[in-house]
Amino acid sequence: MDNINDILKTLEEYLKVNKPKYLYNQSFVPGISQVLYSGPYWDEREIMAAMTTFITGKWVVAGENVHKFESAFSKMFGTKYSHMVNSGSSANLVLIAALKKYFGWKDGDEIIVSPVGFPTTISAIVQNGLKPVFVDIEYKTLNFDVKLIENKITSRTVGIFVSPVLGNPPDMDFIEKLSIQYNFKVIGDSCDSMGTKWNNKHLSDYYVASSYSFYPAHHISTGEGGMISTNIEELKKLFVSFSWWGRDCYCVGSANLLSCGTCGNRFDKWLDTYDGIIDHKYIFTTMGYNLKPMDLQGSIGLVQLSKFEEIDRKRKQSKSTIEAIVLNYVLGLKGVTVLDNSDTCWFGTPFICEDKILKDRLVAFLEVNKIQTRNYFAGNILLHPAYEHLDDYKNYPNANDVLNKIFFLGAAPHYDNNVFEYVENVMKTWKN
Ligand SMILES: Cc1ncc(COP(=O)(O)O)c(C=O)c1O
Question: What's the CA-to-centroid distance between 213 and ligand 1, angstroms?
C-alpha cells in the first residue's frame, strides 16, 4: 500500500485531468455547452483540501479548518468575529435569533424588509417571532424604495434587514441616517453581496451583523455553508450557542480537548438551580439548533478566500460584458442603476424588460440558445402560499411586477472570451 501522501498526490494529478461533473464546464463548446448562470469556482485545490481534511484531518465536524476559515473571513471582510454554519438560510435564522436575544427584542417587534428577495431572509424574521414590515421596491436598483421606509417606522421598529439585490445595495447612507434618527439596527443579508463596497467600505461596516451563503451559485462556495459576522463578542457567542444545540460552551477544535475548556472553568457551579458541579458543555443558555458545518467545508473555504480577489474582478467583468452585449441588441430592455457610492460585486446580471411580452420572449430565446436565465427569485414573496398571510400583496404594486419584467443572467467568474463571443453571436440573431 502506498503512503497516504502519495495517494493524495495521485488523486490530485487525476483531478487536474478529470474534472468532476459538478464543476462548471471549463472548456466551453459553443452551441453544445450551456452558459450556466453560476457554479462553484473550484479546481482540484478545493477538492484536495476537502479530501486531505477528511482523510488526514483531526476533525469531522467544525474544528481547526472551520476556525481558520472564520478568522481569515473576518480579516478579509473587516469584522472582528465570524461564525460558520451549514447554509446562508441557517445564518439568517441564527442571526435574527441572536440579535433578538442580545437586544431583548419582544415577540411582535418589527423588522423592515423588501417583499422581493430570497424567502429565507423573511422566514428568519417570522420564525423568530418578529414581524416583517414590507416596503415596496423601486425600479432603479430594485431594492426597497428608501423614500418609503419612514412611513413604515413605528414604535415597535427594531431593525431593517437589507439584502442588496444581486449584490447591488440601496442608499446605505440614507438607511444609516434613518437608523440613527429612529434608533433601530441595520442588519445585512450579504448572501448575494459578498465583496460589495459602499463609500469604499465593506457593507459589513454598516451592519450590526450580517449573513453570507456559500451555496455553489454564490461568490465563494463550500458546497453548502454560511457565515455570520459581527464586531460584538457577545453576539458571536450567541451565534455559536444557537447553532450548536443552544449550549453555553464555545470551545472549538482542539479546545474541546482541554480539561478545563476555553473558559478555564469547565467543571464549576454553573446553575443557580442545581447545587453542585456541572460540565459547561451541557449548560444551555439558548433554545438552539444544530446547524454546524463539517471541517472539510472550512478547508474548502480557505482555498476559496485565496481566490476572492480574482472572483471579485471577474464577476464585475462578466456582468459589464454580458450586460453590454444584451442591451446592444434588445430594444425595450434596461440594466439596473448602480448608485454613485457603490462598488458592486455582482451575483448576477439583472435586466428590466419594458413589459411581460418582452420578458417571456427574451427568456424563451435565451433558454433555447442554452443561455441560462433566472427569475429574480420568488418575485413578491406575498404571492406565495407560505407567506400570503403576512400582508396583502396588492399593497406592493412594484413588487408584483417583478415576475413580469425582471430576470437575470449570470455574472459568473468562469466566463471567458469564448462565452462572451457565443452570447454575442446568439444575440445577433434576436429579432426586436
Ligand atoms: C439573499 C439570499 N439570502 C439567503 C440565501 C440562502 O442561502 P443558502 O442557499 O445557503 O441557504 C440566499 C440563497 O441563494 C440568498 O440569495
Answer: 6
Name the nearest CA neighbour of 68 among 49, 51, 90, 88: 49
Residue-level pLDDT at 25: 62
60 and 98, same domain (yes or no): yes
Query: Which spans in 78-196 are helix H?
Result: 88-103, 119-127, 149-152, 172-182
What is the atom index within ligand 1 of the atom nearest the CA of 347?
16
Indicate whether 30 belongs to any domain. no
pLDDT bracket for residue 27 (50, 70, 90): confident
Q: What does the pLDDT look like over 59-116, one tens digit per residue?
A: 999 999 999 999 999 999 999 999 999 999 999 999 999 999 999 999 999 999 999 9
Q: Tell me how far the alpha carbon of residue 223 lies from the centroid of ligand 1, in angstroms.
A: 13
User: Whats the size of the chain, residue-wise?
Assistant: 432
Residues touching ligand 1 (Cβ under 6 Å) are 87-89, 92, 117-118, 120-121, 163, 189, 191-192, 213, 215, 226
Domain boundary among 305, 340, 374: 305
Confidence category of residue 142, pLDDT binned at 50, 70, 90? very high
User: What is the total count of domains within the chain?
Assistant: 2
Assigned C-alpha cell, 246: 443552544
| 87, 118, 166, best to mutate for ligand 1 pocket (most atoms within 8 Å of CB) | 118
Q: Say whether both 269 and 318 belong to one domain.
A: no
Span from the CA of 89 to the centroid of ligand 1 (angstroms): 6
Range 324-352 average pLDDT: 98
Q: How far apart are CA 48 and CA 53, in angstroms?
A: 8
Considering the domain architecture, whether residues 152 and 195 belong to the same structural domain is answered as yes
The C-alpha atoms of residue 53 and residue 354 are separated, in whole angstroms, by 51
Could you list the residue range(s) of the whole structural domain that residue 392 is in? Answer: 308-427
Domain-embedded: residue 14: no
| Whether pTM exceeds 0.85 | yes
